[in-house]
Design goal:
three-stranded mixed sheet, mainly alpha, about 500 residues, 3 strands, 24 helices
Length: about 500
């Protein structure tokens, strides 16, 4: 094979032929091109995640900006970007084959300028401050909702990079791409609270903010991401959307089971990433009052959960390779049940350290579960393909290839459905907060803090719902996969192989 010809670009960085499964091509040409595209994809996805969760920390600064919102309204402001980001993940997946990875990465990066511009110029404007509260909330909700475009970047980025790498190397590349994006959550929650108080006198920290900086700070990075994507990334003519594979995947029960598991893992990661800073602020006002540095400069340590979850994600795939994805996923849900119960105990006892430590375990488990659940998908559909070929006398190679395409489709579907889990988590918190929101209505300053302290256990109903959901998902994992694995050893024709 002429590897130079195979990687030669057509027009502006379109590559005509791409064969990463060919060892000679991969070593001489493919690896270098794939790594370059991966590097800029990670950067752009990182910025996308940051903008997606930007409002999780912006809501904490709204009172200091003269735009106080109730607890319920604040949860809507962090829920809507999650919902919109989840909804656009499927169309973003199809955008790469339609427009090319290079062009779509550039466009999706440029679109991030819209929510950041709204945050920089509309939210802190005198015009909005002069509006009645209902109008303020509606405008803020619209500005927050637009930030959801950052949530779609994950799907298009993962779809694009999957085309560049051979099957034997996709796991590492996609894991690195996902982890780099997830880290954007921790970065935004750590940096924005510091940036918005730049230039604020120390005596006024917590009472005054430059909210425009929360949008302005990302604009140079967005421009750099878009320009670099246009100059240095490539598009593959062979990257085509397999709509039939998506249709087949949607009709298969395993798609919905794995997607439900991903609601529990990734949905927990992104949902708690959005909600935790606000939950900490509302649940532990006395702790934050005693630790002003944590309150004013570190947003109540909310960033730590996303950092732990992002760092844990690659271990999910590694552990799954050693012990099996289903075993790891079952252990993840068991850990999340125990940690959620410990968090509830922290709320009941008003012990911030217990609550915070428990939630770090929840985040770590969710990160591992993200990797293990994704690792299960190709194993499940590979086994289904082999069984289909044996049962119906089909060509094994062609059947397994068809099921590999379905597995790729399931990865996109599960990513979108799992993200909806984050919206459900935030809505559970919002519904649980209605009583405390009503009690705090019209109150501010020390009075509001006292009322919040009196209703500090408001989140307990939501926490018990989450614990119950994890018990259910653990049961599903055992019943569908591990129980059947025992049956395989007794009668291989009865069940799927262990995953």
């Amino acid at each position: 094979m002429d590897t130079t010809t195979a990687a030669a670009p057509r027009g502006r960085r379109w590559i005509e032929r791409w064969d990463p499964e060919d060892e000679e091509f991969w070593e001489t040409t493919g690896r270098r091109v794939a790594r370059r595209n991966l590097a800029f994809s990670v950067f752009t996805e990182h910025i996308g995640f940051a903008i997606w969760v930007l409002w999780s920390v912006v809501v904490l600064s709204l009172p200091a900006a003269g735009l106080p919102m109730s607890v319920s309204e604040s949860f809507w402001l962090v829920s809507l970007p999650n919902l919109i980001g989840a909804a656009i993940r499927i169309p973003y997946t199809f955008a790469v084959p339609r427009f090319g990875g290079r062009a779509w990465t550039t466009v999706s990066a440029a679109m991030l300028l819209i929510p950041t511009s709204l945050l920089a110029f509309v939210v802190p404007s005198g015009w909005l401050a002069a509006q009645p509260h209902g109008t303020q909330f509606a405008v803020l909700l619209a500005c927050a909702g637009v930030a959801g475009v950052g949530g779609g970047n994950f799907s298009s980025s993962m779809a694009n990079i999957s085309f560049f790498y051979p099957e034997r190397r996709k796991g590492f590349a996609l894991g690195l791409n996902a982890a780099g994006g997830n880290l954007g959550v921790a970065v935004v929650q750590l940096l924005v609270p510091l940036v918005v108080i730049v230039g604020v006198p120390k005596a006024l920290v917590g009472k005054q903010v430059h909210l425009a900086y929360a949008g302005l700070m990302w604009m140079p990075f967005i421009v750099v991401a878009g320009v670099c994507a246009w100059l240095f990334m490539d598009s593959l003519t062979e990257a085509k959307a397999d709509t039939r594979a998506y249709a087949s995947a949607l009709r298969h029960g395993q798609t919905w089971i794995v997607s439900a598991l991903y609601i529990g893992t990734f949905g927990s990661f992104i949902g708690f990433s959005f909600a935790l800073p606000l939950v900490i602020k509302t649940t532990f006002p006395e702790f934050l009052a005693q630790h002003a540095f944590i309150r004013d400069y570190l947003a109540g340590l909310g960033f730590a959960g996303a950092l732990v979850g992002s760092a844990a994600r690659p271990f999910g795939g590694w552990l799954s390779d050693r012990f099996g994805g289903a075993r790891v996923t079952l252990a993840v849900f068991a850990g999340m049940v125990l940690a959620t119960m410990a968090a509830a105990a922290g709320v009941q006892r008003h012990q911030f350290a217990l609550f915070f430590g428990a939630y770090m375990v929840v985040f770590a488990c969710s990160g591992v579960g993200n990797g293990s659940t994704y690792r299960m998908i190709p194993v499940i559909f590979g086994e289904l393909g082999r069984k289909e070929a044996a049962a119906r006398g089909l060509d094994p190679a062609e059947t397994v290839t068809a099921f590999k395409r379905r597995a790729a489709a399931v990865i996109g579907i599960a990513g979108a459905i799992g993200a909806f889990g984050g919206f459900l988590i935030q809505q559970a918190f919002r519904l649980a907060s209605l009583d405390v929101a009503a009690a705090m209505k019209g109150k501010a300053g020390p009075v509001a803090a006292r009322v919040a302290q009196e209703h500090a256990s408001w989140s307990l109903p939501a926490l018990w719902v989450f614990a119950g959901a994890y018990v259910l998902l653990a049961g599903v994992t055992w019943w569908v996969y591990l129980r059947r694995a025992l049956l395989v050893r007794r009668a291989p024709s009865l069940a799927y192989a262990e995953v």
